[in-house]
């Protein structure tokens, strides 16, 4: 039998699939893969059911149904005062995952360098590899996981084409500050780079911090591919409705790639997400407050157990250092944990090129019911 193509080398099975399967096999509490254990708002679910019954079951337009494109444009205006034409500057995708992949295919030539914040979300490395690009990491280092702008500047070479930014950042929970975002924008403008920014956790930012889109900085409108998704904001990670906003040229380029990946998807989910994007501020405030309380529950509990806890500013995830408990290697720790305690977590190390920086770090998801988090903490006492 012929071997598969080289571009698949090293990709294997995603850590999320591996760890979720282990959770099922060991009947563990799954704090690994980031998905909520409660559905999103009732109105959203009802709207999708209504749309199916009303016959929204055939291919929607390639760029997405008009009502959703309008709702995305309205959302960007309402929360960030950014104006987009729904017909030329908005594209609906099959989740943020497809948006990232299509953006990379649209802008990366074989041999181009893509600078990404490390640890990086797992699909980034695959997307860069599929496009034939070369991944160049800029590491967010414990304990603060801040972006070192000098390191970012030093990573730029004549081959650099794209900066791939993610804030709020998975897995560290870092929310880039105004200074960091401005620094990124200055580097991008100075070197004429495309910036792909993954902002799927835009509404999951804690402690009263704002989310500021990279596209809002000077010189960024014409070079930024902004990406978000309904999965986290409305607790429907399985619906896979994401979107891109940007200049007409950018949206056209990403659409050209996207139309031959999936063409389109999620016909009955699209009008439902359009309705949800127009929910009142009370919805978004409650989502954030609720998740912040769970963050604190899990962070406090993990600290009481002796972990070094890096309390996140956003996302679904808290990162811990396992060394205070006498462990050194996160992969070994996460493979041991389900059998020993009945809890699943994710090792950071798989998200790094500089694996040493991630070796003692483990990520836990707190987008779960408080009693589930409590149960996990009780089980972890066996450590
Ligand atoms: N980007 C980041 C940073 C994520 O954490 C996730 C997923 N959970 C995604 C993209 C994928 O989003 P989607 O499910 O909408 O494809
Ligand atoms: N984004 C989710 C996480 O970080 C996983 C999504 C997936 O399994 N691809 O946990």
Automatic annotation (TrEMBL):
Pfam family, one: Aminotran_1_2
Gene Ontology CC entries for this record: cytoplasm
Gene Ontology molecular functions: kynurenine-oxoglutarate transaminase activity; pyridoxal phosphate binding
Domain Aminotransferase class I/classII large per the UniProt entry, residue ranges: 28-355
Keyword Metal-binding among record annotations: no
Names of the cofactor(s): pyridoxal 5'-phosphate
Superkingdom to which the source organism belongs: Bacteria
Keywords noted in UniProt: Aminotransferase, Pyridoxal phosphate, Transferase
Membrane-spanning parts: none
Family listed: Belongs to the class-I pyridoxal-phosphate-dependent aminotransferase family.
Name the UniProt record assigns to this protein: N-succinyldiaminopimelate aminotransferase
Source organism of this protein record: Kribbella steppae
């Amino acid at each position: 039998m012929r071997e598969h193509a080289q571009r698949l080398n090293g990709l294997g099975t995603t850590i999320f699939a591996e760890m979720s399967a282990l959770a099922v096999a060991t009947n563990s509490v799954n704090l690994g893969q980031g998905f909520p254990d409660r559905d999103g708002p009732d109105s959203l679910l009802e709207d999708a059911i209504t749309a199916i019954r009303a016959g929204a079951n055939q291919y929607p337009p390639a760029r997405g149904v008009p009502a959703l494109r309008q709702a995305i444009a309205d959302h960007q205006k309402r929360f960030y005062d950014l104006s987009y034409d729904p017909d030329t500057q908005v594209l609906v995708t099959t989740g943020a995952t497809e948006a990232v992949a299509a953006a990379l295919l649209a802008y990366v030539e074989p041999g181009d360098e893509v600078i990404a914040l490390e640890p990086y979300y797992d699909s980034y490395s695959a997307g860069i590899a599929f496009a034939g690009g070369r991944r160049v990491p800029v590491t967010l280092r414990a304990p603060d996981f801040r972006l070192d702008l000098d390191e970012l500047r030093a990573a730029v070479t004549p081959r650099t084409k794209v900066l791939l930014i993610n804030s709020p950042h998975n897995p560290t929970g870092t929310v880039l500050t105004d200074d960091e975002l401005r620094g990124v924008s200055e580097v991008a403008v100075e070197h004429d780079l495309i910036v792909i920014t993954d902002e799927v956790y835009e509404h999951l930012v804690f402690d009263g911090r704002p989310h500021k889109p990279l596209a809002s900085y000077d010189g960024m409108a014409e070079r930024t591919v902004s990406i978000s998704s309904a999965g986290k904001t409305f607790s429907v990670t399985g619906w896979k409705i994401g979107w891109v906003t940007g200049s007409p040229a950018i949206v056209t380029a990403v659409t050209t790639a996207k139309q031959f990946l999936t063409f389109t998807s999620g016909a009955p989910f699209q009008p439902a997400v359009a309705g949800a994007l127009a929910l009142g501020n009370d919805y978004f405030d409650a989502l954030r407050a609720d998740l912040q309380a769970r963050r604190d529950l899990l962070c406090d509990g993990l600290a009481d157990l002796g972990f070094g806890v890096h309390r996140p500013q956003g996302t679904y995830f808290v990162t811990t250092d396992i060394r205070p408990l006498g462990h050194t290697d996160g992969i070994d720790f996460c493979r041991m944990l389900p059998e020993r305690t009945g809890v699943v977590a994710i090792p950071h190390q798989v998200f790094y090129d500089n694996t040493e920086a991630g070796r003692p770090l483990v990520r836990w998801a707190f987008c779960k019911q408080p009693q589930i988090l409590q149960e996990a903490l009780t089980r972890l006492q066996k450590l």
